[in-house]
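Board notes (copied after class):
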Amino acid sequence: MEEKKSIRKESFLICITWITYFTVYLGRLNISACISDMVADLDVTKESIGIVISAFFLAYGMGQVLSGILGDYISPILLVFLGVLGSGAANSILGCLSSISWMTVIWSVNGLFQAFIWGPMARFITELSSPGMSARICLLLSTTGPAGMLCAYGYSAVCLKYLSWRYCFGGVGVWTLVSAMFWLIGCQIMTRDCKIPLIICKEDGRKRNEGIKEFWRLLIQSGLAGIIIISCIHGILKDGISTWIPSYLADSFHISSVVSVMMTMVLPVVNLIGVFWADNWNRRWFHTEVKTIAVFFGLAFVTLLCMMAWGDNKAVFSLAFLGVITTVMTGINTLIISLIPLHFKKCGKISTVIGILNMAAYAGTTIASYGFGWIADRWGWGTLRIGWCVCAAAGCIVSLIGWRKWDSFRAEW
């Protein structure tokens, strides 16, 4: 009886966290599908839309460390609820705007609110489940990115075909607000018999100070500084490339924005493989996350070279190469954001580590979102692909340099 009750509890925990984090991606990736139509309708450049997207990632990255620190002391239930609620409001408002300046402000607010979701949510999961189950749930939540991208692009394609790009934000905004209430009600049901308060999680001051000192010691011993650099490079490639794929296909092969978005919908399905590749390759062959990341970056580099050689022949070829690249980037994201932070549970800093690594990733994404549009406007997509190759090579090199230190840390902890 107790075992069945435990299974039901874990299943419900997976349900509320998966739906909530899936919703977060809907409210983040919808703008990527709308770039071409927004450029045409608002009579602006890709660089201008790139500024709007960069504002999101800049605010998201800046909010990560604050979110990570607060997530270790303030109730994760409250932080996630406010994050989802604010993101829904921002999406609803952006669909009504025509000014790039105001869009930049509102989308940056969306980024700030979304920063208060993943770190606290990961802490919530670890408090309500065993270490093994926590890892499995975090791994499963990595599928929300590809699933969210698929649904965001699918919904946007329908809106672009029959309505306008503005409905891409309005509909997602309403869904996100409903999801916020689902999260709050679901968490209250989950924690009825637990000692997780809604507002403040009290902690002994001496224990907290000791935890902080131990964390800074582990920051040096674990090689986390190198992983922060790796996370930044991964952010440049993962979200930077994903953001511009529909526009890249539309410009390079002279197809409509609707067709390019529908073609891009294939990628999230393929990207799901990256989640399980990451876990499987790490456990079976490489036995350390950073070494696995090095292999994934190497695979991305080789694929980009192939894309430069043969990707211009047909849109299908380019899409296939982009599928491999985004899949391995999804795998790297799983290792960095979902699995590496779990090794810091003993010092009670899972949320803080997630915040730091996410901040680094989205610092890279901020550069890419604006920089890729700027390069595409001035020098074309060919030059941009060379930049992607350089980033993949740099990620592989940094990972190879730092994997031994991380491996030694994992062996001790």
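Comment from the instructor: Residues 198-205 have pLDDT under 50 and may be disordered. The chain has one domain: 2-190+216-412.
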